[in-house]
Amino acid sequence: MLPGMDGFELCEKLKSQPETATIPVLFLTGRRRDEAAVVRALDLGAADFLVKPVRMPELVARIQAAMRTKPAREVAVGEPVGEPATIQGRLAFLQRLQQELDRSVQLRRPLTCVVVNLELAPGVAEQLSPEQVGAIEEQLAPEVRACCRGEDICGHVDDRRCAFILFSPAETGGRALAERIRDRVTQAEVMLQGQRIPVNVCAGVAQALLKEPPTAEELMSRAEEALAQARLAGPGTI
Q: Does the keyword Membrane apply (predicted)?
């Protein structure tokens, strides 16, 4: 036991600070394996969860695998430590999604894809130029990024559409992220030519099952299908 806090509290504290958010955290316990504890640890951003006894070669391999994911997130996209990586373009996002799917299977970590669409009032989008839509996206980008954890990956995949890769279950991670984005976007003061532009979001969430891992295209399609259903239900639907 740790003095003053348990492993979950320590992991949450590390992941909440920009300076330590990308440090890989592995749980090692002598207690009986508890699925709820494993899910909680992974949801908090842990890289792995091991139960004693663990042979030294396996422990070293797990640590090395966790360390490999850290520079991949920091260097490949060129983002500073503690900031969510941002990818431009659908193809680049799908390529990164496939890489992370492969890692999630190797490390036995849940992975969720979230697709978020910015929703403008009926008739407004048709009146805006691509440059004006881009200006709205630029104003909202800091709000969206503020909702992400340091290890989350964000992609701008189309006009008014972003996609996210999260290393957590759909309900506790993906849906929670979509709700945070919705709340911040709807409260944001988006201005265009001196007028406030009301913006809402719809989102689709899909989780990769470790027993039958999908391809990046399949997981993205499932998230986009969920998004299409949400848009039919109306702005703000997740």
A: no
